[in-house]
Amino acid sequence: MAKDTKTETASSTEVKTEVKTETTVEKTPELAETPKEPTKAKKPNFKMSQIPGLFVSKAKHLKFDVYLYVNDEGEIKLILPDGLDDERKSLLAMQEMVISAEFTMPSRKQMENYRRKAGRWVEEAQSLITDRYTFRALLLRHHLVDINIPDPSTGDKIKVEIEGGRISDNTETILQDLHPTILEILLNKFVVQADLVF
Q1: What is the per-residue pLDDT across 97-116, written as a single tens digit (0 to 9) for each?
Q2: Is there a domain that residue 187 lies in?
Q3: Does residue 29 surpass a pLDDT of 80?
Q4: Across-strand partners of 104?
Q5: Given this model, what pLDDT does residue 194 score?
Q6: CA 1, CA 16: separation in Å to the nearest integer?
């Protein structure tokens, strides 16, 4: 009996070989950053007419307003600084009077002089304190140039007389008789707006 010869067929497994081609990228060596030269500050090229407010101009005046509210008898019932428009609208039933004042700006030398004159030694604090009222009196005396208040004797607007770099004794006497709140508000505005630190 013939033996069935089993023909073993070797199954050939095809092995696919993938050839990976590696692309070598040559790295370019990093160049060291060239240090930048420091930027030179540009010199300001101002014309004389364009120079900012570095110096105090005696021609420049700071103007402030104060509002007085008077009843029918002529009594002052309220005094307000400018800038309070909403409050003013609610007071239209009363008469409104506007007082304006103009001041010149003090220089650094003048400020030092005023601080020295207004200074007082406080033993407890062991320091020199600038008296606020004396300082403000000096500002008023040396820097007020105009104020639209009536002369009590004539009813006309007073002329601020300047003698020797300060208001005259006659002008100062008239101002001393003013309602104290009027000058206080005007001087408050002047000190704040002119940034006068004392």
Answers
A1: 788 899 999 988 999 999 99
A2: yes
A3: no
A4: 61
A5: 81
A6: 44
pTM: 0.61
Helix (H, G, I), strand (E, B) or coil at 85: helix
Measured distance CA(17)–CA(15) in Å, rounded: 6
Report yes or no on 170 lying in a domain.
yes
5 domain residue, yes or no = no
Is 49 inside any structural domain? Answer: no
What burial class does residue 185 get, using C-beta atoms within 10 Å of its C-beta: 0-12 exposed, 13-18 middle, 19+ buried? Answer: buried
Helical pair 180-193 and 132-143, crossing angle rounded to 10 deg: 80
Number of domains in the chain: 1
User: Residue 68 corresponds to which tokens in the numbers above?
Assistant: 């007085």
Joined tokens for residue 37: 């030269």
**Residue by residue, what is the 3-state secondary structure of 103-152?**
EECCCHHHHHHHHHHHEEEECCCCEEEECHHHHHHHHHHHHEEEECCECC
pLDDT tens digits, residue range 162-184? Answer: 999 999 999 998 888 888 888 88
Task: Residue 103: give the domain boundaries.
Answer: 57-193
